[in-house]
Queue: 2 jobs
Job 1
Amino acid sequence: MMRLMATLAVATVFAFAAHVSAADLKPIHTQKTKDVVVTLASESGQWKQGKNDFVLEITSAKDKQPVEAGKVTLNTSMTMTGMAPMIAGATLTPDKTPGRYNGTIAFPDNGARQVTVTWDGPAGKGSTKFSVSVR
Ligand SMILES: [Cu+2]
């Protein structure tokens, strides 16, 4: 019984630590779909011209629990008059925290981006589109 309680105490500390670091991040965008909520967040809460580090989280729309999203992609496109669209994709690495991915993306200029996120994992397959302004 003591061993079980010690294990639970350690598990609680880890869960709390993970929660605190997530709370340090400011949301860039939250997109709710039928099944999941996709959240982009970073220290500044913005995407800026140049290189950006961010976190992508996929949680269940029903119970807010992390979703095993499997293979996740994030691509952006900027429509510019008289030009081919500017395309930029993110590099995403799964974090230790389930449903969380650490991302980097670079933008050559500012302006509105059409963002497409796709996922394909044990919990299902899907995609969503939304707009994010690069400052
Ligand atoms: Cu552009």
Job 2
Amino acid sequence: MTSRTNSNASPPALEACDLVVGYHGPDGPASILTTHHFVLPQGHSASIKGKTGSGKTTLLQTLGLMLRPVSGRLLVPVVPPRRTEPAVRNTAKMTRKVLDRLIRDGFSYIFQSPELVDNWDVTNNVALPLLARGMVRAQYEGPIEAVCDELDLDLRQLGGRAVGTLSGGEKQRVSIARALVTNPRILLADEPTGSLDPETKTRVFDLLRQACKRRAVSLVLVTHDTELVQQLDDQYRVAVHADKLNELVAA
Ligand SMILES: Nc1ncnc2c1ncn2[C@@H]1O[C@H](COP(=O)(O)OP(=O)(O)OP(=O)(O)O)[C@@H](O)[C@H]1O
Ligand SMILES: [Mg+2]
């Protein structure tokens, strides 16, 4: 694993200790993968690669607080009420309501298959998380223009187009814009360039990386693209074991 930036005094954006992730099946929790110690310093980027079915999406959804860990600790900085300095808290035992508030206030997720509304136009797709926060057009127009500009999405040309009529690369840039428009602190991206041709993949990856850097977003990216991940701060892979849990290790 390589590290390009020294971590500073502020707590990591995410830290996992002896975390076991899995899904909750009919016979109780089924464990898939463990990570003994994973640290994502604020503003850093990390990649995760691994075989299909090895547990990357399950891990990412757990780091994104959507799935509960089977066991272990998942630490995030939280600003307690009436305080300004963050305190590190273990999310593993928090209620769903508290987790949903943490997600709303700082997490964003790009799903493996883009979850866009095909018959809505580009502007409304990007606006979706802001509409869900009760914002009106006068409030969301500025942030949408700024993020679409960063991702090279020309709203004068594309703003009114139904998303279902866009190319794969344009759709991926719309999902990245939608994930960044809320100004998250942490972005979890599940193979956001997986379905693109090599040239478009590099372009979309560069736009994503630059937008995250500019906004100091901490990024965890699942991808198989070994060439592109060299540009991220840290690289991890899922080691698949025959007789015990899969394991997240430095690549
Ligand atoms: N809710 C669930 N019920 C049953 N099995 C599940 C569930 N969620 C995940 N799994 C299984 O857990 C394993 C890991 O799935 P996951 O989607 O995390 O893999 P992945 O590494 O992201 O794979 P891919 O590269 O194909 O996206 C798979 O065998 C999958 O079938
Ligand atoms: Mg997956």
